[in-house]
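Lay summary

Proteins are chains of building blocks that fold into shapes. Our project writes down both the chain and a compact code for its shape. Here are two examples, one after the other.
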Amino acid sequence: MVPFDYPYVLAGRKSPDRLPKLIAAHQQALAQASRRSDDVRVLIGKSMGSRVGCHVAADEPDILALVCLGYPLRASSGAIRDEALLALRSPILFVQGSRDVLCPLGHLERVRKKMSAESSVYVVDGGNHSLEVGKRQLREDRMTQAEVESRVLEAIRVFLKRWA
């Protein structure tokens, strides 16, 4: 695994750069990681990182699979950002909270029906955009956040075993 930060984060800014600069930074990090290891074949990202990763994977035929944690399908303007998803060829796992306002599950299902890439969804019941479940929901389900996260990791493991 090779984590990286986008240039705006390294510069201490809160506002992300425009999409082309984010894509370029992601491509550069992928190229650097690929030089260190031939095993860089799966992209995993959280929120914006997952969206940018999908743009990168659409142009990278060597990517075997993608895992998107909290994909931000809906822009702050309300527009549905599905262009990268529709261009993908690599299988993708969406890990989404059922209360994620940036990716309503109904919207995601409509986009998935239009996608040519194989896709699946793991839903964190009661989870928000950060996959955090509220305390009341956790009590009702007799679970801890750590158990929720363990289940997420298991879903990712099963997905990667199939595709990567």
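And here is the second example, written the same way.
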Amino acid sequence: MASPRPGDPAPEIDLPGWHDGAEHRFRLSEQRGRPLVLAFYPGDGTPVCTRQLCAYSDGLDDLTATGAQVWGISAQDVASHRRFAESRGLRLPLLADTEKAAISAYGVGGLLAVKRSVFVVDGAGRIAWSHVSAVGLTYRGTDELLGVLARLTPAT
């Protein structure tokens, strides 16, 4: 399946995940009215994924100051996400897409792993911006995401 493009409705997400020391359920439809950053990543504890999610966790206050939520999504289970989050002090929710439903709906499944990808969903539930990496050796930084979110957030 092809990845949704800017302007397309964001495919629904309904997944378990780990956040704030407990398992929770995360639904995209419950985020309407606020932007959402979806960071798909290949695997817990791998070098680039660790750098990426630590960067997003370190910048979480700035990202959420825009009104946005930030979710990490991979195919590992909640127990793996718990270990990863606790070992690195990650503050963002990590969602477990073990059935690869969201991975498929967002068109980010690769031959061997999930393609490192970021989607920004606007408050109306549409894709506002996306980046799908073919190789995934780098990631979109917090500053770039803040720029995208600033364009969605009305000036005060």
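What can we say about the second shape? The chain has one domain: 14-151.
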